[in-house]
Structures are given as C-alpha cells and as structure tokens.
Amino acid sequence: MTQLLDDLTPSQAAAVEHFEGPMLVLAGPGSGKTRIVTRRIARLIERRVHPAEILAITFTNKAAREMAERVEHLIPGRRVAVSTFHKFCARILRQYGGAVGLKPNFSILDVKDQDAALKEAVKEEGFDPTHYSPSRIGWRIGQLKNECITPALFAQQAGERVGTHLDSVVAKAYGRYQQILLDANAVDFDDLLLHVVTILKENPNLRQSLDERYRFILVDEYQDTNQAQYQIVSALSQNEPNLCATGDPDQSIYGWRGAQIENILRFERDFPRVKIVRLEDNFRSTPEILAAADDLIRHNTQRKAKSLRTSNPSGLPVEIRQYADGFQEADSLAAEIRERVASGERQYSDFAIFYRVNSLSRSIETALGRARVPFAITGGVAFYERTEVKDLIAYLRVIENPDDRPAFRRIVNTPVRGIGKNSQEKLDRWASARNLNLWDAVHQIDASIGLPKKAEYSLKLFANLLDELARRSHGPIADLLEVIVERTGYLQNLSGLEPEEYANRKANVEELVASARQFDQDHVEGGSLSEFLETCSLVQDADTIDESAGQVQLMTLHSAKGLEFPCVYLVGVEHGLLPHERSLRDGDPLQIEEERRLLFVGMTRAREELYLTWTRLRSTHGRLLSTIASQFLTELNVARHDYSTDDDTSFGDWSPQEMRRGTSGDSILAQMAGWGEQARKESSNSPDETTSTEDDHVDLAEPGVDAQLFAYAEEDTQP
Ligand code: ATP
Ligand code: MG
C-alpha cells in the first residue's frame, strides 16, 4: 500500500481505509473532511474499483474541479466523475429525460427566462401577473421542488387544507409553468433535481441499474443537501449502500434554500449500520482564529457542542475594526493590502475579502482599483448575466434547441432588424395556432400572418441566417460564435455607445469567445454545443477564481464555503447586514442561528489572520444611513480598534508584520493589550450596543434591502 495514508491522522486514515458500507464523517471546519474524500477516491481506485463506479459530489464547480485534479495528482491518468448535484442530474437527464418528456437537447433556463414563463403561467391561469410577482411565485415553486413536491401533489395538498393566498395561486400556476417548460423542451435549475427524483421513483429497473453503476458515492458538504438531493443519493445507495457523506452541521448555510440538517440524522436512521467518524483536529487555522470562531458558534442553541482544537502555532490576534463609513473601510483595506504586498510580506493572492451581500463589493472594488491592487470578484454569474453574453448564448441555444422559445424571442430582433413587438406577437400567435415552434414558423411564413412588408422580409432573412448558423454548428464553438458576431453585425450595432461602454461590451464578447475556445481545446474529440451551454448555465460564483494570478479575492460569504486563505477580511459586520435584515424581521431565532453559522463559515476560512470590520455609516441605495455593529461582534472576545476618528489610515505605524517582528517595540504590544482590555470592558459594560438605536434598524428595513437579498439569493441559487 501506498503513501495515501502517510500524512493523515489515525481517524482520517481509518475513514480513507473504510471500504464497503455507509459512512458519515462529521467534523468541524479545517479538519480534513475534503481531504478524506479525495484520498478515499484514490484509495478505492488503488483497490481496483473502476473509476466509472465512483461518483463524487461536491457543492461547487470549483470544488469539483479541484477535487478531480487532486485525485488525478494522487493517481495519475485516472479520471473520476466529480460533479455538482446539478451537473450530475443534467447528465442523467440527457440520457434518460425521455421518461419525463424531455428531449436530450433540452435547455436550462436562467432566472429571466424563468420569470417570463412564470408570468405566462400566472396569466394563463386567469390571475393578473402585475399582482403576483414572478420572483415570489418562482421562489415558492423552487421551495416545493426542493422538497420533491410535484404540481399534482401540491394541488392535492392545497385541496386538503387551507393555505396562504400565495399558495392558492401557486397551486394553479405551478402545473401550468411546468407544462410551458416542457413545451419549450426546457428545465429550470430545480427541475434538474426533481426530474431525476421522479425518474428514479417511477422506474425501478433504471434505478437499480444506476445504483449498481455508481457503486461508490461520496458527498462532501453534506449538511447543505436538500430533500431532493437526499432522495437522489439514497435512491442510488440501496443495492450498493456504499455512501460516504462528509459534513459539519455548524456550517449549514442553505436552510433558506431547503437544505435540511435533518438529513444527517436521517442518515443514521436509514443506514443503521453506518460507520461514524469524528475528527477533532483543525489543520487550517491559528488557535486565535479558532478561539474566536468558537466564541461565536457557542451562542447557537441548536447544535451539538464540539471542540475545535489545533496544534498550529499561535499567530496574530483576531481584530474587530470600526470605521467611520464604507469609503474609509474600503480605502484603508486597500492601502493596507497594498503596503503589505509592497513590503514583500505577503502576496495579493493571500488576501480574501468576504461580504454578506453583493452590493457591498462595489465600494471595495473602487478602492482597490484606485490603489492599483489587482483583484478578482467571483463574478461567474455576473459575467453570464451580461446582456451581450446572454444575447450570444441565446443564439447558441436556438441553434442547439429550436424549441427554445425564450431564447428565440431574445434574438429575433437582437440586434435590431425591424421586427417589432407587434410583429413578434403575430408570429407567436400564428405559430401557436399551427402548433409550430418559432424556428419552423419563421421558415414557413407567408402573407396570411399579416406582417408589415419590412418585418416579413426581415424574418425571411433571419431564417436564412439561422440556416447558415445551423450548417456551421458542427465545428469549433468559438468559430461559430465568431460567425454569429460577424453575420449579425453585433458589434457594429453597439458602436453608438459611449467609447468606454463599447469597449466593455466588446471585451465581454471577446471573453465569451475565449471561453469557448478554451472549451474547444479541452474537448479536442468534439465537445457538443449542449455541453458547452450546460457549462455556461451551471457556471458559478466561485468559478472565476484564478489563484495563480496573484489577485485579492472578493466574494460573498456563501461562495467562500470550503475554501481557505491566509488572510481574511470580513466587511460590513453590521446589524441588518449580518444578521441580515430579513432574518431579523421574521423574528425566527433559527434564522439568526443560520446567519451566525454563515459568519462562522467565513471566519473559519482564515488560516493566519482574521479581521472583522463594521462602519458607523453605510450607504444603501444611494442614502447614507447610520449603522450599528452586529450583535455577533459582541459575542467575540477579541481585540477591537476604532478607526472612525483617525485621520491616518495608512496603517504605517502598526502593521501586523511589525507586530509580529516586534520591530516597533513594546508600545505596539502595549497598545494591543489595551485593545483587548477595551474589548472586554465593552462587552461587559454595554451588552446592548446592538439594540440601542431603533431608528437605524428601521432605516435598514426599507424594501430595498429585501430586494438586495433577493438579487443575491437568486445569484446564489444558480448551481
Ligand atoms: P471545511 O469544513 O472548511 O470544508 P475540511 O474539513 O474539508 O474543512 P480540508 O479542507 O480537507 O478541511 O482541510 C483543511 C486544511 O488542512 C487543508 O489545507 C488540508 O490540506 C489540511 N489538512 C487536512 N488534514 C491534514 C493532515 N492530517 N495533516 C496536515 N494537513 C492537513
Ligand atoms: Mg471541506
């Protein structure tokens, strides 16, 4: 046997060595859970399990890629399927989707397409779509799907008991919405899971053969699985119950999306012979960081206490920093990072900045830009949300799936070619009456539609264009994209924009072509268009990180899950932001506990240094509002410093590097001791720091904050 076990603790090694039968690894952050998963995969292959019999599932594409690389490194030349739940389900549906009425070339809708389909469904069921926002209905439908509740089941439940008014609308719109999607040969993200659940339930033979095909299933970040995901892994672990789940209940942060901590308890019930492994050592962080994280999480009542210990050497104290406003916070952060890199003490890639809501990143981006600090925002979603990127992707979608109505509508007059709204509606009605998809409709138009001459002519040209593109769709995807850009005159059409905006859009188009080029190179034997589109749809926040580039990483707390960085700044730790206003308003203590876990996840990403910052004033939707510190900060027994009255934020005279080296002598140490003193005093004398200003609370309760959460929530919903 092999060095696979050499640098593991005895309990880690036992988990890696475990062969057949269910296993549950429950352990705190940084204890090597993810390491166990990769080592175990390698060890299984070493024991002659065929790589195709192993299915590893992680929460993000980035984690999946890293894991595949690590396995390849451990056992060169052996590729194992590591994927996210959504990716795995998409793969199953391409093969077996026929059982739920899908053709193999189905499209995956984005949030905007979804909204359009929801609006249509609401309207067709006789409700006024202006009264029922698609996002609320979509949110509820998503919830039902994650709980494996189909339209039929929900309608039945709704008939049996009195529900909310929203639910009575949803009971009708849900089924219609599903039909609209099926007619367009399309699915939304949650369908990927639900359809697979349905298929596994209704086709016992298929279930058994998949169960036998995927003999070994490993699920990392198990605490965040929802009901649908649970049903899938358990359906595939009946005949071959070699399911290995690793997780940490204290890091469960997707309750708002239907994740169920109970899945861990159920595991023990469903697999009574489960081997349970607990790990106690943290290999990631300094004792200071762990102590602070423990101070925090101890305040959660809904948990089993577990100790966090490490034999890592002691490091710098964890610090809470208070600033006057978001600009000072951002500027001083940028200056500090710049100086520490300039002095040779750190690299840019050592730093990560986390925030609760996306909108907090803008001021930081600006400050880092001004200070010439290179940074990367984990903006995978943002990139694929951009108009020009979505336009070009819509062309690809139509070429791949001529039934894709939302994509068809997006491109029929983009760039503008004189096919107005009226003409489009006429075409729509004409096509529906003849039971044609829009692709076939534009190829068959005649005078009976009653279109204006110009529109009719343009549509015919458009049909020719589609034919030409379809003919060229079998070569490299990058080439196809270039043809689309050229033949539609896409860039010329933007040339009326301001130069900077034009350059921006053009750069995005180029970036998309470059990503297709990369895809082509990675799939020399011919990647399909549907595979490429799938990659684009399933792209995630954390996907764009490139550590080699030496950039500061900016991301939301949710995307930080599973990652680690030497030096972490957690900004905006304020009442109303973290815990988020939404969790406060509902008055549900469990929601506050989830917010606390979210902060816990953020803090435990740090290996060597951790700074938590908050500001007295915060600009929200263009208004400067006064803020108070998060209640979570009072729970930490760490050093505090108030910069809100300082003019000098260069940090020149007390850089952490100097503290460590002791170059500026006792005065700094004395100062630090003073902060600690002050911290203890503050936390004992004024425990109600967070509750004193009702007005601030009210200011933050404006609807905008909710919208902000929604915007962020929708982003995070993307698998
Ligand atoms: P999280 O809950 O945050 O996802 P985790 O339990 O998955 O954490 P890992 O990411 O696997 O933890 O490990 C944390 C860090 O500790 C990694 O850098 C890993 O390489 C290192 N590590 C894990 N086990 C050991 C070990 N036995 N010896 C040395 N380093 C280790
Ligand atoms: Mg992990």
UniProtKB/TrEMBL annotation:
It catalyses: ATP + H2O = ADP + phosphate + H(+); Couples ATP hydrolysis with the unwinding of duplex DNA by translocating in the 3'-5' direction. Its EC number is 5.6.2.4. GO terms for cellular component: cytosol; DNA helicase complex. GO terms for biological process: recombinational repair. GO terms for molecular function: 3'-5' DNA helicase activity; ATP binding; ATP hydrolysis activity; DNA binding. Residues 643-662, 675-701 are annotated as: Disordered. Residues 6-286 form the UvrD-like helicase ATP-binding domain. This is DNA 3'-5' helicase. It comes from Planctopirus hydrillae.
